[in-house]
Amino acid sequence: MTRLALLASPTPQARAAEDMLRERYEWCGIEDADLIVALGGDGFLLQVLHTLLERRRTVPVFGMNLGTIGFLMNEWRLDDLERRLSRAKPFRVSPLTMTATTMDGEVRVLPAINEVSLLRETRQTAKLEVAVNDRVVMPELVCDGILAATPAGSTAYNLSANGPILPMGSAMLALTPISPFRPRRWRGAILPDKARISLRVLEPDKRPVSAVADQREVRDVAQVDIVIDRVRDLTLLFDPEHALDDRITMEQFAG
Q1: Which one of 36, 86, 168, 215 has the minimum C-beta count within 10 Å?
Q2: Do the Cβ atoms of 73 and 67 come closer than 8 Å?
Q3: pLDDT of the residue at 76
Q4: How far is CA 254 from CA 119, 152, 165, 249, in A?
Q5: Average pLDDT by consecutive 10-residue portion of the chain (255 residues)?
């Protein structure tokens, strides 16, 4: 039998749902689980996936929405959970690996499931050199920042920055500027996920920049290198009727 673990966000709605599920079904600890049921919103699902990456043992995650948007979550229902899990469709999510080198020479390596973003730290705009596969494609980008988003993260910060929505399984990355000043008309690029992205900070003393891998920040960076992690794939499970691809398609026509 599949061993199930149950995790819930600290909101009252999620805790109440957790109590009902624990009375109805059998559960084990996360360290022994073959599958995790997560109760909350997209942000909590992101926390659960990061927990799996830190434990270096990934198992499929079936989320049920008890948050706000719940774009990557299934509908909350108490009944028929075992049947839902047996019929669920898997979607593979490949996280990014951010290697950030600070101005002091410190190197930090962090995973990112949604996006890696570079952001100016002061009132002055950032100046960045953009390279793809060791080729400089933009010698100077003047902007508030830039982000590289996975398909799973393309409907989050990337979409708010007017970046493209990427279908799950598209094997693409979105490289999206944040408030670009020069070149003013550059709106970003869609790259194959095998691409290696390097972002070098120009004038880092005068125009300091921080790098953020999902919610984890490294300040005063000199260079950030971004690649897909091919070793630690994550798996999200969805009800067959959830139609995640259809939701992503329709999101592109939302007002």
Answers
A1: 86
A2: yes
A3: 96
A4: 27, 18, 12, 10
A5: 93 97 96 96 93 86 91 93 94 94 97 97 97 97 97 91 90 96 94 97 97 96 96 90 69 69
Looking at residue 21, its pLDDT comes to 98
DSSP assignment, residue 1? -
List the catalytic residue out of 19, 32, 34, 42. 42
Our answer to whether residue 42 is catalytic in this structure is yes
CB 148 within 8 A of CB 189: no
Question: Which residues, 6 or more positions from 174, have their beta carbon under 8 angstroms from its beta carbon?
Answer: 147, 148, 149, 154, 158, 163, 164, 166, 188, 189, 190, 191
Residues in contact with 163: Cβ distance below 8 Å, sequence separation at least 6, in sequence order: 147, 149, 154, 174, 176, 188
CB 127 within 8 A of CB 207: yes
